[in-house]
Amino acid sequence: MKIKNKYIVLCVLAITSLFFGGCGRNIPLTPPLEQNVLRFGTDASFDVVTWNLQTFPLSQASMETIAQIIPQLEVDVIALQEIMDYNAFHELVGMIPHYEGYIYNATNSYRLAYLYDTRTVEVQNAYTIYTGQTHPFPRAPYVLECSFKGTPVILINNHLKAFGDNYIDEDDPWDEEYRRRLACQLLDQYIVEHFPNDRVMVLGDMNDQIAEPREYNVFLSFLDKPDEYRFADMDIALKPTYNNVSYPTYLSHIDHILITNELFEAFEAPDAVCRVIRVDEYMGTWQNYANKVSDHRPLGVRLYLDYGRK
After folding, report:
1. Which residues partner with 46 through β-bridges?
2. What pLDDT was estimated at residue 310?
3. What Å distances lie between residue 143 and 49, 53, 104, 250, 275, CA to CA?
4. What CA–CA distance (Å, rounded) separates 153 from 142?
């Protein structure tokens, strides 16, 4: 009897398995992980990253690590801050297939620079603005006039004054927040005067948060013109977590990407996105990444320049 009952049970289990398992595909309980956490860009989109490389290069090993990371991002332009060694930057460029670079001489240290993919981007010009006006701009903004597959775009790379106390001292013109606010006012003025109808992106290490009360928000020149400007990374600023901010050591999001209204539709495409790229996850731990590469995560935006065109 025991053998017969065991046989019946096995038959029932086999039939049940065939019925439930053979009628359709199995649905995974969790979505599969990206095979490469570094990949950000796509073939159809204009993909731009801002990345503070923290006194680049930290070491020769860090250069080699960065040279391995950049091709895996699959992005078109990278705006860089804190390039300390002019020659090391050019050495880095030579280590990355299909990329060329620009770096300025406006400062002797903490330079701004660009890397771009020559297969998708053509550069028309690169130059600084407000050069010598170190009160609002300790590092002169760096403009890149380029085109992505024939579509012109203007990038303005920045590294604004650091530090502060979340208070704008109107009586102290050297107050850090006062200087950052003035810098934003001048950037707005420059765009209005020189690029009134162009696709413009203002990006970089802005050293301040964008989702703050008006009384000490340095970005009101942009925030008060919602029909003209949009911070692509505002969702991050409104809901910051350790995993989504650009400066996680202090749970702080101080690297930003601002777009003008000529790019609004490109950012409204279904697959458009702005987020940090978790290079620290790729390298195993935050500490490993911070020791070898930077204390900032790269922040990227994916734009579809053809979206909405008739």
Report:
1. 303
2. 55
3. 15, 19, 10, 30, 23
4. 14
Asked if residue 17 is part of any domain, the answer here is: no
What is the structure's pLDDT at 5?
44
Average pLDDT of the segment spanning 280-296 = 97
Structural domains counted in the chain: 1
Is the sign of the CA dihedral 54, 109, 178, 195 positive or negative?
negative
pLDDT of residue 167: 87
> Residue 132's CB: how many other CB atoms inside 10 A?
9
> Residue 152's beta-bridge partner residues?
147
> Closest Cα partner for 63 from 40, 84, 49?
84
Cα four-point dihedral sign 221, 227, 230, 234: positive
Spatial distance between the Cα atoms of 154 and 259, rounded to a whole number of angstroms: 10
Q: Residue 281: which CATH number?
A: 3.60.10.10
Residue 280 to residue 294: CA distance in whole angstroms: 9
Q: Which residue has the tokens 């490109």?
A: 266
What's the predicted TM-score (pTM) here?
0.88
